[in-house]
Design brief:
Length: about 140
């Protein structure tokens, strides 16, 4: 089973650090907190910068949020790091047996349910801001 990319949780972790202690947020500091390679952090920071969520100061290190934490939703972060391809949270197996009544109909019947499930998840992520999440750390 393919899971949602860990880029999402790493991005949330990264932005939470920047919100909490912006002056210390070098790539190495973030990588140490996340317990991953700094290269992964740089890639994710690039995605977050492209999405307009952070400003990164190369060389000196450090990063800052471009929006107030209460204006950044988990859905914004999820989309910024392309955690899944659009409308592809769930994938259906390919080439079922079309001679079978289930195989012939499963994709169409299941697609609607899976699309609705993804929509529900995205609506839930849209309700939680980075500020709300980091408020739970205190």
């Amino acid at each position: 089973m393919k899971q949602i990319s860990t880029r999402f949780s790493i991005a949330v972790h990264t932005l939470s650090l920047i919100a909490a202690i912006p002056n210390e947020c070098t790539g190495d500091f973030i990588a140490s907190s996340v317990n991953t390679n700094p290269v992964i952090i740089r890639r994710i920071m690039g995605m977050l910068k492209k999405a307009g969520l952070v400003d990164v100061r190369p060389g000196v290190g450090g990063a800052s949020l471009l929006k107030d934490p209460d204006q950044i939703t988990l859905l914004d972060i999820y989309r910024a790091v392309n955690a899944t391809e659009e409308n592809q949270l769930f994938r259906i197996h390919e080439k079922p047996n079309l001679n079978c009544p289930v195989g012939r109909n499963i994709e169409m019947a299941l697609q609607v349910e899976l699309r609705d499930a993804q929509l529900a998840m995205e609506q839930r992520l849209a309700q939680t801001t980075l500020g709300h999440l980091t408020g739970k750390f205190k």
